């Protein structure tokens, strides 16, 4: 009876110790993971891919501020008028940024929104910073026409790596220097409905002359 009781007591103690150790290991992993998630110096593209849109905006705010840009602001989460961030370059140029944490191809609407934000906030440059690695043709053409600078996934990775190495000038070069514009022709986007003799017509609407 006594031996059986001693064995049972020892087993309970060992189980309790094992549980405490497991909880301690889990707590340490949680702390390390939390530091990795929020410490800018340790965040990778893999971490960014797990962010939601608002987290990506917060991350870019900290990154741009850490890169020693001036007057860095976030826009309000509601009614941002097409921009998520506002900052000034070292030469005083005012910039608006739209953050797009996308997996899919970046489309036309992103350019339209940030171009409108440029006018609303009185900025001189408009940027889209995105995790997307593919851009639609219409997106590229409108960006070229409106002088909207797009920092895609590869560019963002360059900025992050340059920041971690303390090479801020390399990061500035990606963010501040416009890309080579894409050739486009606005006339390719214009069309005239088929002519109807004696009338002006488009779709179901007409006017007899």
UniProtKB/TrEMBL annotation:
The record lists the membrane-crossing segments as 12-32
Gene Ontology biological-process entries:
DNA restriction-modification system
Metal-binding is among the record's keywords: no
State the UniProt keywords alphabetically.
Membrane, Transmembrane, Transmembrane helix
Note whether Transmembrane occurs among the keywords: yes
Annotated Restriction endonuclease type IV Mrr domain ranges read: 48-156
Question: Per its UniProt record, what InterPro entries does this chain match?
Answer: Restrct_endonuc-II-like, Restrct_endonuc_IV_Mrr, tRNA_endonuc-like_dom_sf, Type_IV_Methyl-Rstrct_Enzyme
The molecular function terms in GO held by this entry are: DNA binding; restriction endodeoxyribonuclease activity
PANTHER family cross-referenced by the UniProt entry: MRR RESTRICTION SYSTEM PROTEIN (PTHR30015), SLL1429 PROTEIN (PTHR30015:SF6)
Name assigned to this protein:
Restriction endonuclease type IV Mrr domain-containing protein
Q: Which organism is it from?
A: Alkalihalophilus pseudofirmus (strain ATCC BAA-2126 / JCM 17055 / OF4)
Taxonomic lineage is: Bacteria, Bacillati, Bacillota, Bacilli, Bacillales
């Amino acid at each position: 009876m006594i031996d059986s009781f001693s064995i049972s007591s020892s087993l309970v103690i060992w189980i309790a110790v094992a549980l405490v150790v497991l909880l301690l290991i889990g707590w340490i992993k949680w702390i390390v993971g939390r530091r990795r998630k929020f410490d800018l110096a340790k965040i990778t593209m893999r971490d960014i891919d797990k962010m939601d849109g608002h987290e990506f905006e917060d991350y870019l705010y900290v990154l741009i501020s850490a890169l020693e840009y001036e007057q860095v602001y976030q826009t309000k989460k509601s009614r941002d008028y097409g921009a998520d961030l506002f900052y000034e370059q070292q030469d005083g140029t005012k910039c608006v940024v739209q953050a797009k944490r996308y997996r899919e191809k970046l489309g036309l609407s992103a350019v339209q929104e940030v171009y409108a934000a440029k006018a609303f906030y009185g900025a001189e440059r408009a940027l889209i910073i995105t995790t997307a690695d593919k851009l639609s043709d219409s997106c590229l053409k409108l960006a070229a026409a409106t002088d909207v600078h797009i920092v895609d996934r590869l560019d963002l990775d360059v900025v992050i790596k340059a920041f971690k190495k303390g090479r801020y000038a390399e990061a500035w070069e990606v963010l501040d220097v416009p890309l080579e514009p894409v050739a486009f022709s606005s006339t390719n986007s214009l069309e005239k409905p088929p002519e109807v003799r004696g009338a002006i017509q488009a779709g179901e609407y007409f006017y007899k002359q």
